[in-house]
Amino acid sequence: MVLRLAKTLVARRGRQSACKAGLLKTGFRSFRSSTAVTDKVLCVLYPDPSTGFPPSYARDSIPKIEIYPDGQTTPTPNSIDFNPGELLGCVSGELGLRKFLEDNGHELVVTADKDGDGCEFDAHLKDAHYVISQPFYPAYITADRIASAPNLRAAITAGIGSDHVDLDAAMKHKVDVCEVTFCNSISVSEHVVMMILSLVRNYVPSYQWIKQGGWNIADCVQRSYDVEGMKVGTVAAGRIGLAVLKRLHPFDCKLHYCDRHRLPREIEERYSLTYWNDWKEMVKEMDVVTLNCPLHSETEHMVNADTINLFKRGAYLINTARGKLCDKHVISKALEEGQLAGYAGDVWFPQPPPSNHPWRDMPWHGMTPHTSGTSLSAQARYAAGVREILECYFNETSIRDEYQIVTDGALAGTGAHSYSEGNATSGSEEAVGSTK
Question: Where are the beta strands (DSSP E) in 285-334?
Answer without folding.
Answer: 288-291, 315-319
